[in-house]
Amino acid sequence: MKKGFLVILLVLFGCTEEIEKLPNKGSIVEKIATNLNIPWSINLHDNAFYISERVGTIARIHDGTIVHEPIQLSDKLAAISEAGLLGFVLKPDFEKTSEAFAYYTYDINGEAFNRVVTIKREDGQWHEIAIHLDGIATGNIHHGGRIEIGPDGLLYVTVGDAGNPNNAQDPTSLNGKILRMNEEGSFEIFSMGHRNPQGLTWDEEGILYEAEHGQSANDEINLVEQGKNYGYPIIEGEEAEEGLESPIITSGGNETWAPSGITFHKDKLYVATLRGESVKVINVDTGEIEQSITGFGRVRDVFSDGESLYFITNNTDGRGTPSGDDDVLYKLD
Questions:
Q1: What is the Cα–Cα distance from 263 to 57, expressed in whole angstroms?
Q2: What is the 3-state secondary structure (H, E, C) of 48-73?
Q3: 170 preceded by a cis bond (ω within 30 of 0)
Q4: At 5, which helix (H) or strand (E)?
Q5: Is-contact 293 281, C-beta < 8 A?
Q6: Are 155 and 149 in contact (CB under 8 A)?
Q7: Euclidean distance between CA atoms 196 and 138, whole angstroms
Q8: Cα–Cα distance between 59 and 200 in angstroms, integer?
Q9: What are the residues whose beta carbons fall under 8 Å from the beta carbon of 143, sequence distance 6 or more?
Q10: Taking the C-alpha atoms of 108, 111, 116 and 117 in order, what is their torsion angle to the nearest 10 degrees?
Q11: 194 found inside a domain
């Protein structure tokens, strides 16, 4: 079906949302919201989207209206590369408490750190009410920052190596690790040997998968188990060594994806890629990349509600090429 004819049908049936045809296998994509401000993490509750923005706001999108709700934090956000308000996940009891977990990079006397906090929404704005993990050292890059609530009800946190590869193998450092914590703030190192992990998701059987940026390509999708060492910087990509875990899927040494958010949708793993400028559809059983959804620039996060897939672009982060309405939340049918 040609795009013009599709638009005519949509108008006849009362649908005036902008629809575009993807250049991949006839999929249809809808723009849900435009002009997002360096968005990072997608949440959905009661037909409203809540999306963290690196500048320190939560974009609330409901019934076609977008409001950039401010957050009051205990310290100012760091202005260094890749930093700001990053991971963000609504608590399971958000309906009652209006609370969420957030991960951000802050600055004290010119030095940057990461922390995990609880923020609360009241009267259309958010404020920090508790600090759970604090003083996580970081460099000018590789902050990690993805946070997700696992099937066990605990919070999982990815922390980058802060630009120092040795941190990933240092058991006394939180950098280059995946952490697991409860709401009271007690935590454990769940896995180590990571470079800059930015994606976490679980399949229907409760198996954890992780995506991380490799060094000079060699991006990785890992099946993560507690207590395992995923090798960086000792091994990368397709390399293997006894006692270290190799990825189940890698971009290899000649291609860079820079993967960020990931999710399972209808038994396939969807991976948002920044440098790769696509959403990759992966069959984890075969390791095959079945499709690359392209044409939208840098993609930061993907989200599934079980029926449709949503993704956000990241063309306004200083490394992309913005169009007139970037950044955008898309719905893929």
A1: 23
A2: EEEEEECCCEEEEEECCEEEEEEEEC
A3: no
A4: helix 3-12
A5: yes
A6: yes
A7: 11
A8: 22
A9: 82, 83, 86, 105, 114, 159, 160, 162, 196
A10: 10
A11: yes
Closest CA to 220 of 259, 193, 169: 259
pTM over 0.90? The answer is: yes
Tens digit of pLDDT at every position of the chain (333 positions) = 334 433 323 333 333 334 444 444 446 899 999 999 999 999 999 999 999 999 999 999 999 899 999 999 999 999 999 999 999 999 999 999 999 999 999 999 989 999 999 999 999 999 999 999 999 999 899 999 999 999 999 999 999 999 999 999 999 999 999 999 987 779 999 999 999 999 999 999 999 999 999 998 999 999 999 999 999 999 999 999 999 999 999 999 999 999 999 999 999 999 999 999 999 999 999 999 999 999 999 999 999 999 999 999 999 999 999 999 999 999 997
Mention every residue, 6+ apart, whose C-beta is less than 8 A from residue 58.
50, 51, 52, 68, 69, 71, 88, 121, 126
Rounded Cα distance, 313 and 300, in Å: 6
Q: Has residue 137 been placed in a domain? A: yes
Report how many domains make up the chain.
1
With 0-12 / 13-18 / 19 or more C-beta atoms within 10 angstroms meaning exposed / middle / buried, residue 169 is middle
Element of type H or E holding 332: strand 329-332
CATH of the domain at 197: 2.120.10.30
Domain that holds residue 324: 24-332
Look up residue 312 and give its amino acid: I
Strands 125-137 and 65-72: parallel
Dihedral over Cα of 271, 143, 173, 153: its sign: negative
What region does 254 belong to: left with phi over 0, alpha with psi -120 to 50, or beta? alpha
In angstroms, the CA 27 to CA 128 distance is 40
Q: Which residue's entry shows tokens 């200083």?
A: 318
Residues in the chain: 333
Rounded CA separation 54/37 (Å): 7
Residue 29 lies in a domain: yes
- Say whether 302 sits in a helix, a strand or coil: strand
Asked if residue 7 belongs to a domain, the reply is no
